[in-house]
Design a protein that fits this description.
Length: 258
């Protein structure tokens, strides 16, 4: 698994492992040891992969498990925006290596890439505020996907795309550079937001949002300027959601891609 030459020329580095507990944990461990990045950490297999809210992330060989360590990428209040940056980079890379899947790709708030309405990739942003270090964790189901999940999952092989982690990683490494430059430490988030919305799953449709204490049903209206989901409620009011799990109604699973 190798970086794309343009990423190497830009000073990005890469450390590959056969097995790690978690690429994010390793990235932040290296930050505590003085590593500054930009540095990609990849593993053929993870034994303790995690998703949002501490959920286990199934990490068998054959899928992509990667984290990008960034140091002082922006002011801390902008760090959550990196999930939108990474989602666009994953979308870009997938179109590069499997262009025929483009009409089936979409991005689900806040951090999933969908293929034909099922989860193909996830993103986990973790940080060490004392070090100003951020790990952008990315998992892509290339050859396998878990069963019996709350939200349906899929993989590239199941869609007829024979894309290995090594084939996907090179384009991802350079597409991430491009999207980070566009983001510009948060100053360019308005353009990231616009590009994300153009690829959004469920936009303008009815969605169900699971919060820590309850569920809400409403219309996915937009993203606010910070990336929060703007939900139109049945009483005509809007509520901005900062964190939650979105479930699409059956009519919303068709991809919206450009």
């Amino acid at each position: 698994m190798k970086l794309e030459p343009r990423a190497t020329a830009a000073g990005v580095r890469h450390v590959a492992h056969e097995v790690l507990g978690s690429t994010n944990v390793e990235a932040l461990h290296l930050a505590r040891q003085g590593e500054h990045g930009p540095l990609w950490i990849t593993a053929d297999r993870q034994t303790a992969g995690r998703g949002r809210r501490g959920r286990a992330w199934v990490s068998p060989p054959g899928n992509l498990h990667a984290s990008l360590l960034l140091t002082q990428p922006a002011a801390a209040e902008h760090w959550p925006q990196l999930s939108f940056v990474a989602a666009l980079a994953i979308h870009d890379a997938l179109v590069d290596v499997a262009a025929h899947l483009k009409p089936l790709l979409a991005i689900k708030w806040p951090n999933d890439v969908l293929l034909a309405g099922a989860k193909l990739a996830g993103i986990l942003i973790e940080a060490e505020s004392g070090l100003s270090a951020v790990a952008v964790g990315i998992g892509v189901n290339c050859a396998f996907h878990p069963a019996d999940t709350d939200f349906p999952a899929t993989d590239l092989a199941a869609a007829g795309a024979a894309v290995t982690p090594a084939v996907l990683f090179g384009p991802l490494s350079v597409k991430m550079l491009g999207r980070l430059a566009q983001w510009n430490a948060g100053q360019g988030f308005s353009t990231i937001r616009a590009d994300w919305l153009a690829r959004a799953a469920g936009m303008g449709e009815s969605v169900r949002v699971r919060l820590a204490e309850r569920e809400l049903v409403g219309r996915f209206e937009s993203l606010d300027e910070a990336g929060g989901l703007v939900l139109g409620l049945p009483d005509g009011s809007n509520r901005t959601i900062a964190a939650g799990d979105v479930f699409l109604e059956p009519s919303s699973v068709s991809a919206k891609a450009t």
